[in-house]
Amino acid sequence: MQYIVGEKARGGCIFCSALERQDDRETLIVYRGQSAFVMLNKYPYNNGHLLVVPHLHTANLGDLTPDTQAELMALITQGVGWLKASSHPDGFNVGLNLGASAGAGVADHLHFHIVPRWTGDTNFMTISGETRVLPEWLDDTWSRLRRVIEPA
Prior knowledge:
This protein has helices at 2-5, 14-20, 24-27, 66-87, 124-128, 138-149; strands at residues 29-32, 36-40, 50-54, 91-96, 112-117. By secondary structure, it is α+β, with helices and mostly antiparallel strands. The protein has a single domain (12-149), classed as HIT family, subunit A (2-Layer Sandwich), CATH 3.30.428.10. A hairpin with a 3-residue loop joins strand 1 and strand 2 (36-40). Residues 1-5 have low confidence and may be disordered.
């Protein structure tokens, strides 16, 4: 519940800020790559909702080098695999919202979403109460994913 009651970040890019910090558990980063990283969404649609983010602060796909584009796709593929191993979802939504009018909550730093889905994972709370119910703390999801990414 820290993400609800805790102090909110003020100004700046949330992705650049997370990347600069060294506490991956605190920032919810589960993996750091050469030119991109993977983190849990602080306000997830479902448990395990991952974001795959380039290090470069840009809103334009064309600004990314071919190597960064390849790493992003590789991390999306790995992220799906990590979630399969840790959460056993029935399917996934994978996508990118380019621009605020397309639904990007952070429009100035592009990022891909990986949302694990389970048969019947929508319920009356989402439909009538405009509220999502998550049965697991983000910190627990982070720990479970890290065990799959880097087994002891």
